[in-house]
Amino acid sequence: MQQVFEDVMADMAFLFDKLQFPCEVSTDFQVRIISLSPKNFRSILYNLLSNSIKYRSNKRNCQVHVQTIQVEKGVVLSVKDDGLGMNEQNLEQLYMMFRRFHSHVEGSGIGLHLVKRIVDSAGGSIEVTSAEDEGTEFKILFKSEAIT
Q: Each residue of 107-134: pLDDT tens digit?
């Protein structure tokens, strides 16, 4: 997990260069390894982290927290931010291909659709909680054995 996280952060360095307010990304990897291809895990993490940074609030410093924990049914990856958030209507359409809710940042509207497909294919599940101007949290359950 740590190596994939560091690779993703290095690939996203250009996003941090454009920030008006600082952005702090913290981690708590209680589970270090899961049985998911590194390529797929990287894609999930990249999409969720880059969205957290792109859709940050311009009113405050950006805080993003990434965590993995062992639960009874597998491993949960949580990515939580304090960004723009979404309303209920947006949440209903969140995983639709090419669906975007903000036009002030670049994007194709395919990232979360891809994340959902990867999670579904792996037999996992994804849930999101969000509130406008408070932030968003994605929780992904991977039904797998974990190595802590």
A: 555 688 899 999 999 999 999 999 998 9
